[in-house]
Amino acid sequence: MNASTELLVDAFDRIREEVEATVTGLTPEEIGARVGPRANPIGWLVWHLTRVQDDHVAELTGRAQVWTKDRWAERFALPFPPEATGFGHSSEDVAALGTPDADLLVGYHQAVHERTVSYLNRVKVGDLAEVVDDRWNPPVTLGVRLVSVVAEDLQHVGQAAYVRGLLRADDS
């Protein structure tokens, strides 16, 4: 592993740690709570950030998503097509996630994290400059795509942690 991929692994490790710290110990009601009529609950935020990571890493590796390959889609039993990641979800779609169990959310995230780290362990520093998506101007490189996933995940895990803080304001 090189210094660049070590930094990426560290970033994804921090995301995993924050997902676990945010979700562990919550009740299903807290996981599904919406602090405003159209606010995203913790469960949806963690599911979405994990789906995005799973989707993007699977595309980069050319392998099936953990979501379908390891039957997480069946365990969650959501009313969405298996390829859904949460992008473009309406408030009603967000509500359809319901109140998933903390262990289910953390387990899926852990499985995706393991796939991500396994992939990063094979990435060479020169690979990060490889164009992986030429639909954009400028074209997106592997490094940019991975940093985009980190940014998306950090944003959403931070939102989820904030909601936890609102729900458990009396905890010290």
From TrEMBL:
Q: Which organism is it from?
A: Streptomyces mimosae
InterPro entries noted in UniProt: DinB/YfiT-like, MST-like
Q: Which SUPFAM superfamilies match?
A: DinB/YfiT-like putative metalloenzymes (SSF109854)
- The organism's place on the tree of life at top rank: Bacteria
Supply the Pfam families for this chain: MST (PF04978)
Q: What is this protein called?
A: DUF664 domain-containing protein
Gene3D superfamilies reported for this sequence: dinb family like domain (1.20.120.450)
Where do transmembrane segments lie in this chain? Answer: none
